[in-house]
């Protein structure tokens, strides 16, 4: 190790061209996945807790898909806000081939082949109690009966044209069960992006408003989502999902869990994605609105941090903003 003055690290920071030459982490719109909320309504519905984000009507999806394509964003993740009348204790609407998310997939597929469509496998947008699965009278989420429904939900989405199914429910064994069912049904190319290390987090609050689950949820999700204190356990979750046939894995939330992203990226050889969740988006936008932070500074910096930690890509509500910023 040489020392000062032979070594002056500031030499490499002297000018923009030099900083560009030695930069270790690069960001591209190809590293973004854009989560989009969908409504049965005819007009866009702004989400109060996520300033700048709306639930979109089906009629808007073609335009949004074209926008993603022109921005170089490779994939859209769809989240439906199911009308109250179609929610039930067992979340059966998830199996309806004509449900909102299936129609949304079709809209995007009809608009362009250049953008991948990802759908969430979990029952919370469809249950009257807001949990991700089937519950017993004590409101415990039952693992194996839930996995059976999730398999049906994933098949329903694959049939509708989803390119990526993303189980976000945290039931044990669901990735393997979904993989076997997809193979048996001939959906051999459907990608499974497993929400492998999904934590029981307070940062999902605005999302639950967006999909209409907030007022409904009884209790919390700590019986199936992970304890924020654990990282060794995250590696076990990931290893199981890899063995069960996941094509990529995800860590969620994002910024507070970059150590988990790093650990997973080092332990495994498949792509690792990170979800910069609704509460993280809301924090940034609240600070920007009050003049406390500059969006143009902090949002690209956050993206760089995800990539530096080892994320192949980031699911973020700032995806269109970032893609424009990167293209400028
Ligand atoms: C549902 C699901 C959630 C998110 C993605 N899929 C919420 C939850 O688990 O309660 C959160 C996304 C966000 O907060 O942006 N299974």
Mean pLDDT, to the nearest integer, reads: 97
Q: What gross morphology would you assign?
A: globular
CATH topology: TIM Barrel
Helix/sheet category: alpha/beta
The percentage of residues in β strands lies in 15-25%
- SSE series: HEEEHEHEHEHEHHEHEHHEH
Structurally, the number of domains stands at 1
Number of strands: 10
Look at the structure and name the CATH superfamily.
Aldolase class I
Q: With helices defined by DSSP (H or I, 4 residues minimum), what is the helix count? A: 11
State the name of the first-level CATH class: Alpha Beta
Helix percent reads 25-40%
Would you give an account of this structure?
This protein has helices spanning 16-22, 61-71, 100-111, 143-160, 174-184, 205-210, 232-243, 258-267, 278-289, 295-309, 319-327, and strands at 32-39, 45-46, 54-57, 75-81, 116-121, 164-167, 191-198, 248-252, 272-276, 313-316. It contains eleven helices and ten strands. It has 328 residues and is of the alpha/beta class. Helix 4 crosses helix 5. Ligand PBG is lined by residues 120, 122, 124, 132, 168-169, 204, 207-208, 221, 277-278.
